[in-house]
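Handoff note, outgoing to incoming analyst
You'll be picking up this chain. Sequence as last confirmed:
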Amino acid sequence: KKQMNTPVSKVELYFKCNNLPNLDNLTLSDPQIYVYLQTNTGQFNKIGQTELIKDNLNPVFHNTIVMDYYFETIQNLRFDVYDIDDIHGRLDDQDFIGSASCSLGDIIGGRGAQNCLNLAGKHSKSNTTITIHGEEVGDLTSNILFSLSATHLDKKDFFGKSDPYLEIYREKNDGTWLMVHRTEYILKTFDPTWRDFEISMQKLTGGDPDVRLRFSIFDWNKSGKPDFIGEFFTSLPELRDHNNVDFEVINPKKKKKKKYRNSGVLHKRRLDVVKIHSFLDYIAGGTEISLMVAIDYTASNGNPAYTNSLHYLNPYEPNEYQKAIEAVGNILLSYDSDGMVPVYGFGGKLPNGRGSFIN
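Most recent structure output, in case you need it:
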């Protein structure tokens, strides 16, 4: 038997694009990345996608993709970038910006564990690029739950109040910053309360619990060019300290002004470590599984006397239903609390001609 490769580790991929073409008439492009992995047959299957970022030609995405990394295998990836005009429409109906391909090894083995690629497409320019950064994933057993608000933020809009949102960055070993989260923007307020959100411990810290973090607040603009309000620097231990509740938001360009105090205050309303329980945790905690099987006897399965029926009793091999029941049942039966497996059927016809919901 051919032995299956076991993954060396898991890798988390981060994405950003630069100098995307503008394919919208009145506003800017609304980019989104779709990621595909090549199979052994040469076909590319989608493994994930980023969030959609509106009106931005230089987007930095905070949605990441986690995938298995096999050192001894070439894992070819394709990255398709679209301008999404209709979030409910088919992908083929969206505006295609460009595509790029490389192997996962090209990313992990690249300088700084990243790879910058030109996007190929009829609308792309020579400087239209996508950058993919990869990091080995360590601790996936816990998340950090944030509940944050801010008050007295600087006014950035000439007419009306600001539309603030928050971005969180982690400092990398080379001194650059990697964005790990972006909140929603809240319209017309100097005192926003953002929705609670969770970030995995691994994504927030990169495996270093004392890593430096940067919290930056911006004023959202429809033009796609946000206005910087201010920032502060901290670490997870400082954030978890119960004495640290309020953090002054500072705009470095304003610090030289005599009367300048801050550009607002960010408030830590709540910060909790949330354990992510595994399947084994639930089993060890007393969770019981009861396996039950239900078989569809409706006519849509075909006449069982014919070989094209899912219910055909082949004397040489199990039919499709038997294969599915055996494949799933052999796994779940090990965890069944009493070893008894009820089997039901529905949609069949009894000998007296009456319909049956359960046999």
